[in-house]
Amino acid sequence: TEIYTLSLHDALPIYLRVPAATVPSLKGHLEQRGILATIAARTRLVTHLDLPRRKIAAAAQAFRDFPHWNS
């Protein structure tokens, strides 16, 4: 096991596949919650370590709450 130290400028990327027909409604859903995002069929989500946990949690909850994942 390797252990390394992350700096506050490191990012933790997550890749998400979004059905093309769902892209506009997901973007609108996030914008209504104050989250600006560029959404595409393959979206890269990045959490920077210097963000407050509450903001990260709010963004994660907004993705979970999106009602059209199976569209």
Can you characterise this structure?
The protein has 71 residues and is of the alpha+beta class. 32% of the residues lie in helices and 20% in strands. It is built from 2 helices and 2 strands, in the order E-H-E-H. It has a two-stranded antiparallel ribbon with strand order 1-2. The radius of gyration is 14 Å and the shape is globular. The mean pLDDT is 82.
List keywords for this structure.
71 residues, alpha+beta, two-stranded antiparallel sheet, 2 helices
Helix content: 25-40%
Question: How many β strands by DSSP?
Answer: 2
Order of helices and strands: EHEH
Number of helices: 2
Q: Span from first to last CA?
A: 40 Å
Q: Are there runs of 5+ residues with pLDDT below 50, and where?
A: none
- In terms of quaternary structure, the protein is single chain
Give the helix/strand class. alpha+beta
Computed CA radius of gyration, to the nearest angstrom:
14 Å
- With strands numbered from the N-terminus, the spatial order across the biggest sheet is 1-2
Which outline best applies?
Answer: globular
Average pLDDT over all residues: 82
Q: Characterize the biggest β-sheet.
A: 2 strands, antiparallel
Which strand-content bin applies to the residues?
Answer: 15-25%
